[in-house]
Structure formats: structure tokens, C-alpha cells
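User: I'm preparing a small set of examples for a lab meeting where we compare how different chains pack in three dimensions. I only have the primary sequence for this one, and I'd like the structure in C-alpha cell form so I can line it up with the others. Please keep the answer compact; I'll paste it straight into my notes.
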Amino acid sequence: MSSTRQSKIERLLQRDLGDIFQKGTSTLFKGKMVTVTTVRVSPDLSNAKVYLSLFPVEDKEDFIKYINDIEGQIRFDLGKRIRHQLRKVPELSFYIDDSLDYIENIDNLLK
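Assistant: Understood. Below is the C-alpha cell output for the 111-residue chain.
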């Protein structure tokens, strides 16, 4: 169960990372639409799991690998945005949010 502080930081990270992904779409992410669906922060606030929804991407695993490779740049940009709210920027790990694919699969099965 997450505390109130964790929840506030999760919402802050989700909003700022979403903005970073939106502004970096043309340069960093090769025109792909990346949406931050969920952020989960560890109780000590040192690690954050970021779940991403990727739209026009055929090979999602390679794209997540690419995003994890440029995690330092994303973390630096995030640090510039949240430097007054947090003392230390958490380590970021990115994962695929496949809930939309799961919902689509269930809809197709029900038809």
C-alpha cells in the first residue's frame, strides 16, 4: 500500500514524464507516440517503475530497450523539472503497459 507521499510523487513523475515524452516525440522518440500510463515509486523513493503505452510501434521490446538506453537523458530532463520538489531524482525503469492490447484481445474474443 502506498503512502500519501508516494502517491503525490507518482502523480508528479507521471505528469512531468508525460510532458517530456510529448515534447521529445519528434527528436528522441523518432515520431512515436509514447504515453505514460502508470508510475510506481518504491517506499524509499529511490526507484520508479514507469509503464508506457506505445502507439505506432511494431517491435515494442526493441523500443523499450532504446528508451532504457537513453534513461540517463530522460532522468536529466526530469531532474531539471522536479529539482525543487524532490531532493534526489529516482532511478527510472521503463516497462510496456499491455493493458490496452489485453482489452482489445478480449473484445475480439467476445465478438
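A couple of notes for your slides: The helical segments are 4-23, 60-69, 71-82, 99-110. Residues 41 and 48 are 4 Å apart (CA to CA).

User: Perfect, thanks.
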